[in-house]
Amino acid sequence: MENWYWMTLVVLIGLTVRWTVSLNPYSGAGKPPMFGDYEAQRHWQEITFNLPVKEWYFNSSDNNLQYWGLDYPPLTAYHSLLCAYVAEFINPDWVALHTSRGYESHAHKLFMRTTVLVADLFIYIPAVLLYCYSLKEISPKRKIAVALCILLYPGLILIDYGHFQYNSVSLGFALWGVVGVSYDWDLLGSLAFCLALNYKQMELYHSLPFFCFLLGKCFKKGLKGKGFVLLIKIACTVMASFLLCWLPFFMEREQALQVLRRLFPVDRGLFEDKVANIWCSVNVFLKIKEILPRHIQLAISFCLTFLSLLPACIKLTLQPSSKGFRFTMVSCALSFFLFSFQVHEKSILLVSLPVCLVLNEIPFMSTWFLLVSTFSMLPLLLKDELLLPSVVTVVAFLVACVTFFPLCESTSEAQLQLTSFAVSVRRRLPGFTFLPRIIQCLGISCDTDLHILIRRKHRWKVCHADNCAHEENGFQMVIFFPHSDDASISQRTALGQEGTALHFKLDYSSTKIPV
Question: Lower CB density within 10 Å: C or N end of the chain?
């Protein structure tokens, strides 16, 4: 009962932060003629409410595709239609054909913000709670901490409640799918992920891990017995889900093709705006979009994306496990974000969701990545005047993670499973050792084995961190580093117990420090 009390408090904190952020400006507020994503979502409600289904994705006098034309799968359109019925009941002017274009008012803003909150309450937040409760081998308090940190992730809050989108719907369905397939509710998990994919096509970022994990389960059970039956059941579930979502568009061949053309607009190029991926970074030095033809860009993007995610997918298929599934989701989503075609800055949210799922296993790396992912969207957030809520939500998230997780643990190369990678890199770059040092030094306040290197009067001296406060003032330089076997100490003399000063001659990373 006490756990339910704390979990309820966590949900209330998450809702309070969300609603507070929603009081800030939204994308394109007061900026005609195109406005922003807020107007795009309102316009889709206008189109789906006033036009027949067969005209939703086609250009016409009533549906100018150049003005926020619908470019998401059918489930997004159905959601827009549902919201439009509610909007029309409250105020018909909000969805009036043509005359509602660019409509802005405090009442309408309240309505639109509420639709996001309701979607969160019914889809995303229950999925987060169920995932956290289903975690095994951790205490109830840790489950509550995981739920709090996931619900306080600033990137999703700022985009959905600040910039304005419904990312929590597709991510919520995907999370329901993760819970389902991880705990052998394979058909429900498949159905949930099909809903996610039919809400936003970017859920393709997570599609291969789902496919490989379920296929691996079938292989493990044997394709001549229970595995084959499971495979048939999953295939039927997927086909039935897609058929129901796409049924109005399967009546005519051109209808389905037009929807696909809208979902995958290859004419837009490799990336848009400022995206923290490979193509945008390379474009600073080499104008790929101008040098290479469009079909060559598409082919290179496909090949690099496929090759980068292939090893993790093969391993997951051969060795299916819930933990491997979550980490493969991280790897594949990141591969898509870094190398795939037509990437938006907001697509980093598709990487952040699986990273949230491994927060309990690698808290330091997960927290670091989630903070960086939020920072990568800073140009967009600044354009929407969301700097203050960005700072506040990032600080709140960081405080929660530092409070409830031992961020300084599991940060060595061996614990992060980076030993083989680091050794291979050091063969070519001997100075590469400073990177693990940075990781460990970021956790300086929690490291019980931390030592401090001090230079005083041409002498180097090492003392334990706990005893440095007792040293006299006047040292010239302080360098922080934890003890490690990577450092080659050619001569040292220990004086006393742990924490007592050490005098030595050090040869570390090809840097010699004289006594």
Answer: N
Instruction: Looking at the structure, tell me whether residues 386 and 429 fall in a common domain.
Output: no
Verify that 219 and 268 share a domain, yes or no.
Answer: yes
- Determine, yes or no, domain membership for 273: yes
Q: Are residues 342 and 437 in the same domain?
A: no
Instruction: Let me know the angle formed at the C-alpha of 499 by 498 and 502, rounded to the nearest 5 degrees.
Output: 95
Q: Are strands 511-513 and 450-456 parallel, antiparallel or unpaired?
A: unpaired
Q: Give, for 379, the enclosing helix (H) or strand (E).
A: helix 378-383
| Residue 274 structural domain | 2-29+104-404
pLDDT band at 409 (very low <50, low <70, confident <90, very high): low
CB 94 within 8 A of CB 88: yes
Q: Which distant-in-sequence residues (6+ apart) come within 8 Å of 452 by Cβ?
A: 462, 463, 464, 465, 468, 478, 479, 480
Q: Is the pLDDT of residue 483 over 70?
A: no
Phi, psi angles (nearest 5°) of residue 72: -120, 165
pLDDT band at 124 (very low <50, low <70, confident <90, very high): very high
The SS3 call for residue 225 is coil
Flag whether pLDDT at 411 surpasses 70: no
Does 225 have pLDDT greater than 80?
yes
263 and 175 together in one domain:
yes
Query: Among residues 451, 363, 445, which one has the least CA distance to residue 404?
Result: 363
Q: How many domains does the chain have?
A: 2
Distance in angstroms (rounded) separating the CA atoms of residues 187 and 144: 28
